[in-house]
Amino acid sequence: xxxxxxxxxxxxxxxxxxxxxxxxxxxxxxxxxxxxxxxxxxxxxxxxxxxxxxxxxxxxxxxxxxxxxxxxxxxxxxxxxxxxxxxxxxxxxxxxxxxxxxxxxxxxxxxxxxxxxxxxxxxxxxxxxxxxxxxxxxxxxxxxxxxxxxxxxxxxxxxxxxxxxxxxxxxxxxxxxxxxxxxxxxxxxxxxxxxxxxxxxxxxxxxxxxxxxxxxxxxxxxxxxxxxxxxxxxxxxxxxxxxxxxxxxxxxxxxxxxxxxxxxxxxxxxxxxxxxxxxxxxxxxxxxxxxxxxxxxxxxxxxxxxxxxxx
Length: 311
Ligand code: APR
Prior knowledge:
single chain; Rossmann fold; binds adenosine-5-diphosphoribose; alpha/beta; three-stranded antiparallel beta sheet; globular; six-stranded parallel beta sheet; L-2-Hydroxyisocaproate Dehydrogenase, Chain A, domain 2; 9 helices
């Protein structure tokens, strides 16, 4: 048996935490690739974690590089390469600069890790994951965008904070694009199987839904010079682990819809089964007319950004 290999493309804020979590969970050997200017930083982060391993005995190896050939043979590739948001910027404002970056990354992943499962994180997520898919030519089950896992985690956190109950017992789902038009579904949210409208008032539920939609922006404002990194990193590694351990977890993810939810040809947040086959299936739930309208609204935003990519 050989160890799994995880390639992190982009070793910034999220990439660094991803490397730490991969080590802590012993998910596989890690290579962190960044641009030549940043090579020293990613080598330093990798070495720092190498030296953290003895305390808890994490038997995996990490290295940093600016050479894409180092990702050869990777089982999972996680892409955070790009620039993050600053206060006042929408995720869409990042499109031009991050498009150039993803084009370069996609060509290198295609060349060196053609059999990998790819998790795209770079924003604007729905358009960037679409671009990666088109340029790489990967099968649809091998490409997924991380957004719903994070948005659902935020929704769960706020429900737990408001009810005072364990975050572990909160279950819910957020559909749609990664932005303010996302569609949290409070109708399906439960704590230990108990619907949240038994635990919270309508005003409290509305406030939680609103806060979930704006949660990324709330953190961008507080940090003042970047976007969230702890919660995205944990959410991403749930997806990577589900693939590497064939867990068949149901994780809201930006997956390519081909007819599901009446959507055709776009990556958008839907409940996805993630296991050893990558995105193995998209699960469909019956939506109310109001929810359908919200999903249509978020789809239009995704379509517009995808059109702007020109891919
Ligand atoms: N190849 C590899 N790495 C690159 C490339 C490239 N072509 N271009 C940029 N990078 C690197 C940057 O040098 C930086 O180290 O990507 C890293 C991004 O890290 P941060 O700026 O710290 O951003 P982070 O907070 O990690 O977010 C990354 O995820 O949530 C999204 O909007 C966010 O698009 C952003 C991404």
